[in-house]
């Protein structure tokens, strides 16, 4: 199937300017006429259209809930999944290096190309045509979205749980960064010093590794049989603390906190002033709702 025929089948759109379509699927490794500017345009247009779709579909949702829902729909992970389902990888134009390393399967390249195609449609026919294409490929996922309250990312949930009990913010330490620049792997340690607990996370970006580490620490805090270690009860304001895990809220005895490693080069997660909700189970998400970076008081 030709590229133009595939676009017509997948996006319900016929390009008048074929060169725009070809540029949209061209990675920068394949030549100067690549898709990065189209990706920039498509990203902005996509956010606007998805915001409108959510505004219409969730009339009772507040700004925070709508933002979390939108972040889920326009995340790189979701866009890469849609691109893979549509078979976009088969039509990418990649340089020799990216072809050799499987770039046609790489999530970031797929997500960027999908946004670039939407940007190309916008340039070719205007906002309405691009909005129709977005509704066609993303619209069906509106009904599959979980409740907005479950979409807070692990870093935010861990932070809110600790702040609700007057405990210090978690400390994230970069342990290692390995691999080539285009395929790096980061290892991060998440530690709550006052609880003497820590967990490690590994991901394709430092942010992703931090989220995974926070998610593991939430699971650890929710475990019913955490082993005892030396821990002062003064760390807890009421003699115990409830930390929300992935599926439920559990009580943790002040003396039941395993030891954790401390790092040297650290940065602290910034405060997030959203209200804590420790009684609701929440599933980890990797890239949503990170707090602003600031030094805690």
What would you call the structural class?
alpha+beta
The count of domains is 2
Strand content: 5-15%
Helix-strand sequence: HHHHHHHHHEEEHEEE
The profile of the biggest β sheet is: 4 strands, antiparallel
Task: Please identify the top-level CATH class of the largest domain.
Answer: Mainly Alpha
The count of β-strands is 6
Instruction: Assign a percent range to the helix content.
Output: 40-55%
Instruction: Look up the CATH topology of the largest domain.
Output: Ribonuclease iii, N-terminal Endonuclease Domain, Chain A
Q: Which geometry do the CA atoms define?
A: flat
Trace the largest sheet across and list its strands.
3-2-1-6
Low-confidence stretches: 227-297
How many H/I helical runs?
10
Radius of gyration: 22 Å
Mean pLDDT: 79
Please give the alpha-carbon distance between the first and last residues. 59 Å
Indicate the CATH architecture of the largest domain.
Orthogonal Bundle
Full CATH superfamily name of the largest domain:
Ribonuclease III domain
């Amino acid at each position: 199937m030709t590229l133009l025929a595939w676009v017509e089948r997948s996006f319900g759109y016929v390009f008048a300017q074929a060169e725009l379509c070809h540029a949209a699927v061209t990675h920068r490794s394949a030549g100067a006429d690549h898709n990065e500017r189209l990706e920039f345009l498509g990203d902005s247009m996509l956010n606007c259209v998805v915001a409108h779709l959510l505004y219409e579909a969730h009339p009772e949702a507040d700004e925070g809930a709508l933002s979390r829902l939108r972040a889920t729909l326009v995340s790189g992970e979701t866009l890469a999944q849609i691109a893979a389902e549509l078979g976009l990888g088969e039509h990418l134009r990649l340089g020799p290096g990216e072809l050799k390393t499987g770039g046609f399967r790489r999530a970031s390249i797929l997500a960027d190309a999908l946004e670039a195609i939407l940007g190309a449609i916008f340039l070719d026919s205007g906002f309405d045509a691009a909005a129709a294409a977005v509704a066609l490929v993303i619209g069906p996922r509106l009904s599959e979205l979980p409740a907005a309250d479950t979409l807070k990312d692990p870093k935010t949930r861990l932070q809110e749980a600790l702040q609700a009990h007057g405990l210090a913010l978690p400390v994230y330490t970069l342990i290692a960064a390995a691999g080539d620049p285009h395929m790096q792997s980061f290892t991060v340690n998440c530690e709550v010093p006052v609880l003497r607990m820590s967990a490690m996370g590994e991901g394709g970006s430092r942010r992703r590794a931090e989220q995974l580490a926070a998610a593991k620490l939430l699971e650890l805090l929710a475990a019913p049989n955490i082993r005892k270690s030396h821990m002062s009860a003064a760390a807890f304001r009421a003699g115990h603390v409830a930390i929300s895990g992935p599926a439920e809220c559990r009580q943790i005895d002040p003396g039941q906190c395993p030891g954790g490693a401390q790092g040297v080069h650290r940065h602290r997660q910034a405060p997030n002033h959203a209200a804590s909700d420790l009684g609701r189970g929440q599933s980890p998400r990797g890239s949503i709702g990170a707090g602003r970076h600031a030094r805690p008081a």
